[in-house]
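Issue 218. Parser rejects a valid record. Input:
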Amino acid sequence: MRDTVKTFVENRFGLLVLVIVSLSAMYGLAYLTRPAPLPPPPQGPRKVAVETVTAVCPGTKGEQVSVYLPGSLNGESMEDGKPYVTNGPAGLEAGYLTRATKGAARGLAGVRCTEPAATTWMLGPGPANADVRLHLTNADKAPALVDVQVYAAEGPISGDKGVGLEIAPGEHREIDLTTLAPSADVMAVSVTTIFGRVAVAAGSAPETGGVDWLPPAAPPATRVVVPGVPGGGGRRELLVAAPGETDAVVTLKAVSKDAEYAMKGRESVDVPAGAVVSVDVTTGVAGSSAALVLTSPTPIVAAVAITGTGPRSDVAYTAGTPSLSLGSAVAGNGPGSHLVLTALGGPGKVQVQVVPGKGTAEQPFEVEVPAGRTRDVKLKAKGEFAVVVTPVSGEVYGGRVIEERLKSGTLLTTQPLAPARMWTMLPPLTNTERVVLP
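Output the parser choked on:
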């Protein structure tokens, strides 16, 4: 009997061991052969509300700056000609217009007060063909350091002359670009802030006549949309730069009032690495208000120079800019103002509101833009006013145009609709040692 019990106990524990071994093997095999967990979906930029805004305009003595805050528009005079600097809450916009009908500075010019940025790009005629002045303003109480690089048809040409420029606290520096790149016929300029905060502007007065400010262009990208090309006569010149180390083959399309199409003979543009190429697209847009869409496997920057008509021609500029997904506002507008809106990828709709300098803001109205088309929207208001554009649906791009027809020639200025300072897109945070390592 004792031997029987002993055998039973031994068999029972042996069976238990066998069960444990079997279960371990089974779960171990299941663990080894289970599918790998799916990685978390990549995070995109987050839409974050802006809290405060710093806006800086180059100074012009005696001119009045239009300052827009949501729902109101006020004017502030630049008595001493120093740069105008303002700080305010989200939604702040500021800018001004200058108008001259005689003299070397004849023309209509509009400038948007810009915020300090890490890198600013601008394109236009080079110092060989125009008087181009770069304005650098450090509005902070700390020193700043910037690098200025000028690209031309033959590539980067400014060398080390624009590298390591110190801008003292509160200092404004005006640079005649002939000192950096006197031989450039066309140019792209990049201003990179190494440390500190510097606001950038550039004024251009071509030898052929006219004056205006160069709007900041969207940073290098593989798809660039240049909106706000006005209709009418005169020359339309596309400027494209490939600032990297790889040549760019750029596919070019125009989007007009009637169609979206590749321009005959200008379906693509070859841009050597580090160079700027000029393309005459006057016949391509055929006098219609339009936007240009550029795609390239290599990042590019782009702008359009517009020349008016008449015995004495004026000049204006528009540049690559993001869509109106964050909305936009232009503080300084006057008689002859209209919007040029383009919808891509499908129909689009925006809401437009005019805010006069005197009186209450007008009721907003909606504007529908057919897919792959450009539409002009006249802005009717007396005196100076602000215009606010709010997205409703679709992918819409735009520019503000002002035209004044005189016997001596049309006065002209354009401004692409830059993102409103109500929201910003914050890039995703990455769990990497590069966050803490120098």
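Fixed in the parser; the record now loads. DSSP finds two helices and 31 strands in the chain.
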